[in-house]
Amino acid sequence: MKVGLLDVLGARQMRYWNTFLNELGVKVVTPTLPAEDAYELGRRSLPDVPVQVQLVLGRLLELGNVDLALLPSTRAVSQDAWASDLAELLPRRISGLPTLRAVPDGGPELTGAALELGQQLTHNASQVRLALSKVKLLAQPPRESLPPLSAPARPTVAVIGPDSLLRDAFLTGPLRAKLGNLALHPVWADQLPREQVEERGQRFSTPSGKPLPPGERDLWGAQNLLEGKGAVRGLIYLAPLRDAATLGALTRLSGTARKPALLLELAPELSDWPELAAFVTRLAAPPQEHPL
Fold first, then answer.
1. What are the boundaries of each domain within the chain?
2. Assuming Cys at both sites, which of 57, 177, 221, 256 could form a disulfide with 197, CB separation 3.0 to 4.6 Å?
3. Are 184 and 176 in contact (CB under 8 A)?
């Protein structure tokens, strides 16, 4: 049995799954191509899909002949088929891909998912229990606290988007460099304490009163938590290029902002955003919130 382990979608539990699978005696294959090459491979194969999907596809094509490939599950926004059904949709678009399985990237579901996967791979309950004992500490969530909200002589901006995008250094790298060049202090939403984000996100619902999808709840919770901080002068919203569902969710969210707001799309081929200059000028003006 050969299992591919993908470092995509902001994966945080690579060490957990790698250790667990090795304890089961499964051969683990991980990508080795530079992210730029994997992305180009995916973009040439499916030019019309969101950039994060293209990166996933490139990594899958790189793996070659494996029996199963694991990728982190993501939290979808409204009408977000790529996030909610990625493991089913990709093989429909590209033939010959290995079987895909979305697994939790942390949280209380992690151990249960590992137990189920281990049983299916080995049919050996005692071996699975032993493997789980070996990774028990790796499943513990990190201690969380609010990141620094200010830096000397740098206006603070909240950066809000899907965690799977914000945690991807390849996809966000050009923007991180740009914000540094503009002497801004970004506070990234994926660094916020998860419990606080979820608690605040629960306060919001759709216009019809229905609960928001999990990914959209995260976005609203992050905005609510950060916009209320006095140090935060403005908000930047990030969507992957060609991701209509995420762009729509962030458009709705940014329309409720009470501080200067800017919505950007990210792709590895984009390295400049002219609208950032005007946004920085707005931040330099005296703070002025819209009336509630």
1. 2-139, 156-284
2. 221
3. no
